[in-house]
Amino acid sequence: MAIVRLVAFLVILLAAAAGSTTAQGTLKQGITRENSNLKPDKAKQPGQGQETVERVQPTADKPSGNLSEIHTAKNSDDIETQRKLVAFTKWLAVVGGLQFLALTVQAIVFWRTLNQVKAQANLMRVHAEHLENLVGAAKANAEAARDNATAAKDGAESAKANANATQENIELIIKKERATLVFELNDIEWNNPPLPPFASTVSGVTYKVRFFGYTPAFIIGTSVWAFVDASKEPPTEGTRSSMPIPKIVSSDTEFPVQKVPIWPIFWDSAQTEAVREKRSFIHFHGCIRYKDQFDKQRETTIKCRWEESSIPGLGGKWITYGKPEDNRQT
Question: Among 40-49, 264-273, 294-303, 305-314, which stretch is predicted with the lowest mean pLDDT?
Answer without folding.
Answer: 40-49
